User: Which sequence fits this backbone?
């Protein structure tokens, strides 16, 4: 994994945006994998700036988001649909018909660990097929959870997993409660691309900032490859880049690191 460390969040966000912009300039119909959470906000801000000031053109770009909470309508202010429109889509010239964010509303669901509800199964198969139809994701942006999760693939997720429903861990519910009025309002399930789906992306761009991510980053980059730290699987990818600020990278052995 190429590890690039910047002195602060703004600098790492600019670097990440530079990488994404260069891929769009090289391939205008880029298939761009997008992530939510607070980490990529700086990257999105910079992409918007590049669109407005430098004419970065998203008109042919196709997007696929990693995940969505189950049970939140697209207009709910904590849904990932809403997040993406507010923080990126409405500010750039992406064609709405090229946008893909997993569905979160399915009506009444029978949730069982042994059998997936057919409505969910049908959606997940469609999502996987849709990614294939566009030739696969060219570059996937990723954040990392404090427990090493990527998208909503929590520790213990199968390394070969595909898009499916996942139960969120208590740690993730607690971490994400800061965005909701109370912890009880945080959905318990999400639809997420699988680790196998993510690993098929041609390039991976993992972002991490702040000291709260330092342990997860160390396990992901220097730890053993294990389902207990889903991000560690990135060590098996041909082209994975981690762009971090110095706090998130503070526990890495410095000889593995490139300073940006
Ligand atoms: C969420 C998302 C992940 C994200 C992670 C970290 O649970 N499903 O895609 O990477 O949490 O979020 P943040 O960037 O806010 O720390």
Assistant:
């Amino acid at each position: 994994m190429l590890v690039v460390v910047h002195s602060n969040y703004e600098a790492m966000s600019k670097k990440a945006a530079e990488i994404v912009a260069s891929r769009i300039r090289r391939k205008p119909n880029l298939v761009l994998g997008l992530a939510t959470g607070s980490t990529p906000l700086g990257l999105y801000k910079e992409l918007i700036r590049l669109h407005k000031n430098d004419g970065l053109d998203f008109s042919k770009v196709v997007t696929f988001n990693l995940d969505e909470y189950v049970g939140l309508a697209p207009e709910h202010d904590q849904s990932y649909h809403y997040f993406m429109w507010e923080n990126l889509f409405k500010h750039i010239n992406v064609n709405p018909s090229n946008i893909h964010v997993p569905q979160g509303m399915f009506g009444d669901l029978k949730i069982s660990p042994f059998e997936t509800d057919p409505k969910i199964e049908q959606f997940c198969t469609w999502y996987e097929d849709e990614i294939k139809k566009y030739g696969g994701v060219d570059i996937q942006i990723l954040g990392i959870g404090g427990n090493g999760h990527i998208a909503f693939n929590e520790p213990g997720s199968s390394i070969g997993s595909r898009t499916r429903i996942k139960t969120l861990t208590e740690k993730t519910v607690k971490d994400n409660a800061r965005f909701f009025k109370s912890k009880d309002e945080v959905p318990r399930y999400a639809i997420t691309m699988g680790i196998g789906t993510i690993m098929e992306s041609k390039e991976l761009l993992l972002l991490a900032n702040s000291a709260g991510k330092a342990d997860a980053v160390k396990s992901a980059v220097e730890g053993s490859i294990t389902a207990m730290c889903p991000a560690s699987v990135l060590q098996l990818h041909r082209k994975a880049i981690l762009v971090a600020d110095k706090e998130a990278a503070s526990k890495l052995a410095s000889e593995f690191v490139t300073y940006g």
Q: What stands out?
A: The two ends are 15 Å apart (CA to CA). The domain at 2-259 is CATH 3.40.50.1360 (Rossmann fold). The chain has one domain: 2-259.
